[in-house]
Design brief:
Layout: H1 14-20, E1 27-30, E2 34-38, E3 48-52, H2 64-85, E4 89-93, E5 107-112, H3 131-147
């Protein structure tokens, strides 16, 4: 997304349309900076999407001052979803571009029960071939963090 469009409603964005009221959604939380509503294709009943009301495509686009309001809401929603659905726990996840069905930052809060059929992260694991490879990867990430 271009920097000039970040933070404003994006034309054609389904989530921006829910924020504006143009499209209906089963809203469970409405705060000044954050909205949460039921996913229309839930993994399980109670699957909630939590979004910043302003349009940001990915987590890295989200301004620092909006991180706390978004994740404070996600934290409360994780507890509420578990309580409301009688769940044993929850799964909280974000996709950035890859597997992101709507290009508007959204955090999934999914109720979980033991033996619900959802397996781990739902994708195959790829272990490091050895300690040197793991150390090299960790070093590359530390270096990238220093550059941010």
């Amino acid at each position: 997304m271009s920097a000039s469009l970040a933070g404003v409603a994006a034309i054609g964005c389904l989530f921006c349309q829910i924020v504006s009221g143009e499209t209906a959604g089963h809203v469970v939380l409405d705060e000044p900076e954050v909205l949460a509503f039921l996913d229309i294709r839930p993994l399980f009943p109670g699957h909630v999407l939590t979004i910043p009301k302003r349009h940001y495509e990915t987590l890295t686009d989200l301004p620092p001052q909006l991180v706390e309001p978004l994740f404070a809401a996600v934290r409360r929603l994780a507890a509420a979803v578990e309580a409301a659905m009688g769940a044993d726990g929850s799964f909280v996840a974000i996709n950035n571009r890859v597997s992101q069905s709507v290009a508007h930052l959204h955090v999934h809060v999914v109720p979980r029960t033991r033996k619900d059929g959802l397996r781990g992260f739902m994708w195959p694991r790829h272990p490091y071939p050895d300690e040197a490879a793991a150390a090299g990867t960790a070093g590359a990430i530390r270096e990238a963090l220093r550059a941010i």
